[in-house]
Structure prediction request, 83 residues.
Amino acid sequence: MKVLKFEDFVQVTSLNPISRMHNEYKRTFKLLGKYVREIPAYKTIPTQVHRSVKNRYDSSTYKSIAIENYLKLNNGQWPEIEE
Prediction:
């Protein structure tokens, strides 16, 4: 199984899951419209979620449509949490 990690060129000094999120919905993306990525069913594609995603979800008002849909379909169970 693959391990989630940052590319070598990304210098991560600290991860703060509740820090302000970058607004990617600008210019070209506004023309293309919003696209909600889907978390595939674990039985179909074994999926991992980085711990910072769950921490952000649990610690703030941030709510992801993809995460909400996944949790509804899986009785509130998260995919595997990757450290």
